[in-house]
Automatic annotation (TrEMBL):
Enzyme Commission no: 1.4.3.5
Gene that this polypeptide is encoded by: pdxH
Protein's name in the database: Pyridoxine/pyridoxamine 5'-phosphate oxidase
Role: Catalyzes the oxidation of either pyridoxine 5'-phosphate (PNP) or pyridoxamine 5'-phosphate (PMP) into pyridoxal 5'-phosphate (PLP).
Pfam families associated with the record: PNP_phzG_C (PF10590), PNPOx_N (PF01243)
PANTHER family on file: PYRIDOXINE-5'-PHOSPHATE OXIDASE (PTHR10851:SF0), PYRIDOXINE-5-PHOSPHATE OXIDASE (PTHR10851)
All copies of domain Pyridoxamine 5'-phosphate oxidase N-terminal, residue ranges: 65-177
Family: Belongs to the pyridoxamine 5'-phosphate oxidase family.
Keyword Glycoprotein: no
Amino acid sequence: MASIPPPGASPHRAASPEVGPDAPDPAGLRRSYQTGRLETDQLAATWVEQFARWFADATTPGAGIPEANATIFATASGDGRPSARTVLLKDFDQRGFVIYTNYTSRKGQEAAENPFGSLVFPWYALERQVVAIGSVERVSRVETERYFASRPRGSQLGAWVSHQSQIIESRDVLAAREAELAARWPAGTPVPTPPFWGGLRLVPDTVEFWQGRTNRLHDRLRYRRASAADRWIVERLSP
């Protein structure tokens, strides 16, 4: 006869001393999405116009989203091992979505080895998400330098300080390097753009707009590139 779990225990999860009895059971966390709907006739003519609409909604003060430009950027190595991290969107237009990074970082190296990726914008407070999948390319040096010049001085120095994704002994290494570079380029002196730093553009082949609905029957409408001539079609996907 199967044993009966004690009161309050998860009926489907085996007891684990590593997790402990007080850890919340993720399977029991449920939320019903009821605030919106998404129909084909509500969509803009292009994915970039639709993204601009939803991005505007996400950036309004009452939306409850502290960083609407935060996006999960997924890449994969040449042998197909995936990795993901949260980055910040810095530009978008009909060509795609732009983020900036150290090209020697893991994501920079993976984008060079395997030039495909995806972005997820998780706007949970609005019960929405946007998923873009496509190829990844470097932006022009002109675009990179223009953006770098607009950054706060501390962020400019930080781009030089960090050998991103490399192992360091302690935070003291960063502090010492920052002090050294601050002396090299004192306040009022332009900080040059690092040659190993720049923009990556995800050029989408698909952009999906997801709106949460009741009973997990969500609305999923996807713009898909249909040809090299930049013709797009809209499809509804089963949830």
